[in-house]
Amino acid sequence: MKEPVTVFFTADNNYAPYLAVAVNSIVKNSSSERKYRIIVLEEDISEENKAKISALLPKNFTIEFSLMSRGLDKISDRMGNRLRCDYFTLTIYYRLFIAEMYPKIEKAVYIDSDVVLLGDIGELYDTDIGEKLIGACRDSSVAGVPELCYYMEEGVGVPRNEYVNSGVLLMNLAALRKCRFEEHFLTLLSTYSFDTIAPDQDYINAICNGKIYYLDEKWDTMPNEGYAENTEAGLIHYNLFSKPWCYDGVQYGGEFWKYAYDSGFFEELCNFKKGYTEDKKSSDSSCLQLLIKRGGEIPKQEVTFKKMNEMGKKIRI
Fold this sequence. Notes:
By secondary structure, the protein is an alpha/beta fold. The protein is 35% helix and 16% strand.
């Protein structure tokens, strides 16, 4: 009998419908011969929504909703702490505290809520990453944007082909505890308060570079019009603005609606899409342009991950 699979999500009530779709897709592609434990680090998810999500699970699954127990008072709503330059939520930081919050768990998968699984997440969990701190996929969603590649290399200080997306992480929790990852992150945050484009992701890359296992790209396949569809995809990640609940014609969008249909939130998701106005789409476009612009500007600041590292300050673990 294989060991149980532990999967972490983080979500607030706004993201409950997408969390339900992700959970539904995990269930539909799981093995009936194995046990799965889902832990949701949450912020204000309603009891009604928790019940709807829990109702999706068969007997070999358990789910726990846990309010974040770490103090995040040092993280304020400013541009450098916003997701996509337009959305502030503390939940994106929760993954950085999992190791210390759950000291009895040695290994787990973390995934964002804007995903669908096309394969058994147990296969990802079983990947042997040795002594590496995390397993993750290279971030293909921004690989073709010169300003963002410049930001990766000259701001975060990581070669563009080594910069990973933090939406899917195979976490060696024992190793993260051993190297005091949480303590180091909080020290960097309070000491430098770096300006960032992808807040949690940039810290993960700056801190863990050199101790990352690069997963098969099928486990973090993202819509990208510049690439043909990946027929071997095991997980679709609707990263940045490529949301099928906002736009028509999103690559792999059909997979989202397949699992949305019986997620308990189908009508709500359809209504959300119908109400996604041209003004909102225009705002998305403006935010994307701002994100790209900041990619060219942040490396020129006096305090960046790369500059502090070059000065001999301890950035990487």
